[in-house]
UniProtKB/TrEMBL annotation:
GO terms of molecular function: AMP nucleosidase activity
Protein name as catalogued: Cytokinin riboside 5'-monophosphate phosphoribohydrolase
Record key words, sorted: Cytokinin biosynthesis, Hydrolase
Organism: Koribacter versatilis (strain Ellin345)
SUPFAM superfamilies from the UniProt entry: MCP/YpsA-like
GO terms classed as biological process: cytokinin biosynthetic process
Residue stretches spanning the membrane: none
Length: 275
């Protein structure tokens, strides 16, 4: 058993006390280093100049326009390469569950069922659950695409994608993952998966997209989301109509059947199921 597995097992199904949370918060900020916030360019002297040196970056209209150009170019690249893809389903999930883990097997089954139903599978293109979904799709003969994010520690595309599209900006990648999908399936994951899950839920809630099926696979894993949603409801932060934002199931087959059933006739006719 690896050290990481032992640590994970030690912390499984336990609650953090307020003191433990505070200690970890303090440790995180103590080790995080300097903040990389950008401040406006200015001709003022001394204190501001020292602040610039400390923060390392200076914001200026020229630099902002350069950044906008890079963002726009990434959107154009994504739109051009994904325009002809579909019908497609995006699968979200952690990069930390690898081959041999029960969640990895679950991810392969999801990709396989989607491909058999005729869907292209979109993922973040990385390892773990993303790799599993791409692998299941590819081995079933379906289209498998990875929208990979460029990270300082170089997240390499997994070997089961037919096409890789690389992004520098998380939010551009996320827009493309959402824009070209007719449903979202969330496998077990961490902060990134929760971010993607709740952004999709918010967009659907506000009528900005869909309505599209949002399906969480892993009844035990996702039970905490149901509990926290009940807490939000009890506090008055959401309404009862918001509590059904996602379907939770253990069955990849059921999940894909729900997606197919949700499609308009015109989209169903474009599916090319595989035996």
């Amino acid at each position: 058993m690896s050290d990481s597995t032992e640590v994970r097992d030690q912390h499984q199904h336990r609650r953090l006390s307020a003191q433990e949370w505070e200690q970890q918060w303090q440790r995180t900020w103590k080790e995080s280093g300097k903040m990389a916030y950008e401040i406006n360019a200015t001709d003022e002297h001394s204190a501001v100049s020292e602040e610039r040196a400390l923060l390392m970056e200076v914001r200026s209209p020229v630099r902002e326009r350069e950044r906008l150009k890079r963002i726009s170019d990434e959107f154009v690249q994504g739109f051009d390469k994904l325009y002809g893809v579909g019908p497609a389903v995006t699968v979200f999930g952690s990069a930390r569950f690898h081959e041999g883990h029960k969640y990895y097997d679950l991810g392969c089954e999801v990709g396989r069922e989607l491909a058999k139903a005729g869907f292209a599978v979109l993922t973040g293109g990385g390892p773990g659950m993303m790799e599993a979904a791409n692998r299941g799709a590819k081995e079933a003969g379906g289209a498998s695409l990875g929208l990979n994010i460029i990270l300082p520690f170089e997240q390499a595309p997994n070997p089961y994608v037919d096409q890789t599209i690389e992004f520098h900006y998380f939010f551009v990648r996320k827009v493309c993952l959402v824009k070209y999908s007719c449903a979202f399936i969330c496998l077990p994951g961490g902060f990134g998966t929760l971010d993607e899950l709740f952004e999709a839920a918010t967009l659907i809630q506000c009528g900005k997209i869909g309505p599209f099926p949002l399906i969480l696979i892993g009844e035990e894993f996702w039970s905490g989301v149901r509990d926290f949603t009940a807490h939000l409801l009890g506090e008055g932060a959401i309404g009862m109509e918001d509590t059904g934002f996602a379907r939770i199931t253990d069955s990849p087959k059921e999940a894909v059947e729900l997606v197919v059933a949700s499609l308009p006739v015109e989209l169903k006719e474009r599916l090319k199921p595989r035996s």
